[in-house]
């Protein structure tokens, strides 16, 4: 089945939720269109009566003309009221349906696996949620009623044309298949450019989002010129596809109009002959020419909307690509831990790869007892962060099992697994809200007192109270009104508030100065007390007191033990530690 047709059927699922209002809008549109279809015949009656009066040498029948004017005014009111009512109701239907679509996209985003965002530009995902939905909304509001009106208008006009003169009607309807052939040929060529245009727009949004986020780095390395050239290439690509799609679809209107003008000429000449031969009244000829216009006008409107419709078609396919993405799979019957979480973590013959031909972790085995602190070290690409992703079930293991308190995490609900963990990332994330609410993000039901207590444990309470408005200070969009170290402490406070049984600290002290590192270390020691903790660190001096150190390289644990044990072995860890000590 054609993708466009399939997408339209899926769109109807959203519109039919408001089918009462939708069909009422269609009823008003049909009423207005049918009323409009009778106009030419009624408007032709005075012309015919005046001609008859003049031929008979009688005075003009103004009473008859006045009655026709009254009828025309009433019909005009009905017609305009119908069009206004249908437009207002359809706008309500479209806006509510698109609200539901946006809600579904947002819910879908929350159900997508982390792997989706690892392989898609965030700007492109954002473009699908905003630009593509806006394009679809505009198209539905502009074109849906016009297409319905055009279809009914054309049919009713053709019926009236056959009632007036069969021969002229047969000649006139030849322009309909001619126009359809022209339109179909042009759409077949232009549609691919509309799809490329929407894709190019997504790429441009992704590039802008990426560069605006790293704008300070761009300035630091004087990448303005290179950035401008890359941006210019993307803009030119978008402009090229936009021009081709707009130009090709723009050919539709003049070509369709050409068929209409040829029809006008034929009708005018043949109709005049029928009037002279008295087989047709002059009023009916006037009405017939108006019906030719009534057939041509809606076809012209549809062709004018061709660019909007094709753009919306491409946008719709991009939207449903997101909605069709494979979601995180959950078990039919989720196993639940019996009793409180102890925090024992076991890796049993764990293997994992992002792609089948490139294994990353193979036969990984280790056991962490409740309350132990485990440090994970190794060179870049050794698999440290991947190990954490597997712990959190951002990815599922290819083989083997990860167990918490002897229960395989693959048999548990992902939400329950993640609720056992607290996480402090190297890239501290804060959102545009007060400091109080940013900390409360770790436990939404926490009281203000609990938030302040968590901040004190994280050694960030003093910093907060020295800031303007204290806990009520708003963090700006890029969190640039607090320092990197303060961000880190705030995220530690958030983790403390969530009160997890298992804690993950991913490079938590790698980007702060010595004084803040000491504060963070003290906060970490407090939050790790009584909890199973996984610490990923490049600064080996920060993990000397760890109960277990796992040394990873190329996805495997090559050494494990305490700090003293690993130094005594004189292996990879000893070389790594001494190299850092020498640098310091």
Structure description:
The relative contact order is 0.08. The model has no long low-confidence stretch (mean pLDDT 79). Strands 6-7-8-3-9-10 form a six-stranded mixed β-sheet, sandwiched between helices. A four-stranded antiparallel β-sheet has the order 2-1-4-5, with no helix packed on it. It has 584 residues and is α/β, with parallel strands linked by helices. The protein folds into two domains: 321 residues, Up-down Bundle (ABC transporter transmembrane region fold), CATH 1.20.1560.10; 239 residues, P-loop containing nucleotide triphosphate hydrolases (Rossmann fold), CATH 3.40.50. The radius of gyration is 36 Å and the shape is elongated. The two termini are 66 Å apart. The longest helix is centred in the N-terminal third of the chain and has 50 residues. It comes from Vagococcus elongatus. Keywords: ATP-binding, Cell membrane, Membrane, Nucleotide-binding, Transmembrane, Transmembrane helix, Transport. Its main location: membrane.
Secondary structure elements and their pairing?
Elements: H1 3-15, H2 19-55, H3 62-111, H4 114-119, H5 122-164, H6 166-172, H7 175-213, H8 215-220, H9 224-250, H10 252-276, H11 282-304, H12 306-323, E1 345-352, E2 361-368, E3 373-377, H13 384-391, E4 399-404, E5 407-408, H14 414-419, E6 421-424, H15 435-440, H16 448-457, H17 461-466, H18 484-498, E7 502-506, H19 514-528, E8 532-536, E9 548-553, E10 556-561, H20 563-569, H21 572-583
Parallel strand pairs: 3-8, 3-9, 6-7, 7-8
Antiparallel strand pairs: 1-2, 1-4, 4-5, 9-10
Helix pairs in contact: 1-12, 2-3, 2-5, 2-11, 3-5, 5-6, 5-7, 5-11, 5-12, 7-9, 7-10, 7-12, 10-11, 16-18, 18-19
């Amino acid at each position: 089945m054609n993708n466009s047709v399939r997408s339209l059927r899926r769109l109807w699922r959203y519109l039919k939720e408001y089918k009462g209002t939708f069909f009422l809008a269609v009823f008003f549109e049909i009423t207005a269109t049918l009323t409009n279809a009778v106009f030419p015949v009624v408007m032709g009656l005075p012309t015919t009566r005046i001609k008859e009066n003049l031929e008979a040498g009688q005075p003009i029948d103004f009473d008859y003309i006045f009655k026709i004017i009254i009828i025309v005014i009433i019909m005009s009111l009905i017609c305009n009221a119908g069009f206004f009512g249908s437009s207002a109701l359809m706008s309500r239907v479209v806006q509510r349906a698109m609200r539901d679509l946006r809600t579904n996209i947002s819910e879908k985003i929350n159900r997508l696996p982390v792997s989706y965002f690892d392989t898609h530009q965030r700007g492109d995902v954002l473009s699908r949620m905003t630009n593509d939905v806006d394009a679809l909304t505009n198209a539905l509001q502009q074109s849906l009623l016009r297409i319905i009106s055009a279809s009914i208008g054309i049919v009713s006009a053709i019926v009236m044309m056959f009632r007036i003169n069969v021969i002229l009607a047969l000649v006139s309807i030849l322009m309909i298949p001619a126009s359809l052939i022209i339109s179909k040929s042009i759409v077949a060529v232009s549609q691919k450019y509309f799809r490329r245009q929407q894709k190019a727009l997504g790429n441009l949004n992704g590039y802008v989002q990426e560069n605006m986020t790293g704008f300070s780095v761009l300035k630091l390395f004087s990448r303005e010129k290179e950035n401008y050239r890359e941006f210019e290439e993307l803009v030119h690509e978008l402009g090229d596809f936009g021009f081709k799609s707009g130009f090709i679809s723009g050919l539709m209107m003049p070509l369709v109009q050409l068929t209409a003008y040829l029809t006008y000429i034929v009708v005018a000449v043949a109709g005049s002959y029928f009037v002279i031969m008295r087989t047709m009244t002059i009023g009916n000829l006037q009405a017939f020419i108006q019906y030719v216009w009534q057939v041509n006008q809606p076809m012209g409107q549809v062709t004018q909307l061709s660019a909007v419709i094709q753009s919306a078609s491409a946008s719709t396919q991009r939207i449903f690509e997101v909605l069709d993405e494979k979601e995180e799979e959950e078990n039919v019957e989720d196993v639940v831990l019996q009793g409180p979480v102890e925090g024992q973590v076991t890796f049993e013959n764990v293997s994992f790869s992002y792609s089948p031909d490139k294994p990353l972790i193979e036969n990984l085995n280790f056991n962490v007892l409740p309350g132990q602190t485990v440090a994970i070290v190794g060179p870049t690409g050794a698999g440290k962060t991947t190990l954490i992703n597997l712990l959190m079930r951002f990815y599922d293991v290819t083989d083997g099992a990860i167990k918490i308190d002897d229960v395989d995490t693959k048999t548990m609900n992902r939400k329950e697994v993640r609720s056992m963990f607290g996480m402090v990332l190297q890239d501290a994330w804060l959102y545009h809200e007060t400091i109080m609410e940013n900390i409360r993000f770790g436990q939404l039901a926490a009281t203000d007192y609990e938030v302040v207590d968590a901040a004190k444990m994280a050694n960030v309470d003093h910093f907060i109270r020295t800031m303007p408005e204290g806990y009520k200070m708003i963090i700006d969009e890029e969190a640039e009104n607090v320092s990197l170290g303060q961000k880190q402490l705030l995220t530690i406070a958030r983790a403390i508030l969530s009160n997890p049984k298992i804690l993950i600290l991913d490079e938590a002290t790698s980007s702060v100065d010595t004084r803040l590192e000491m504060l963070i270390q003290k906060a970490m020691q407090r939050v790790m007390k009584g909890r199973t903790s996984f610490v990923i660190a490049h600064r080996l001096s920060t993990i000397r007191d760890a109960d277990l150190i796992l040394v990873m390289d190329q996805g495997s644990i090559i050494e494990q033990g305490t700090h003293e044990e690993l130094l005594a072995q004189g292996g990879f860890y000893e070389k790594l530690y001494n190299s850092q000590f020498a640098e310091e």
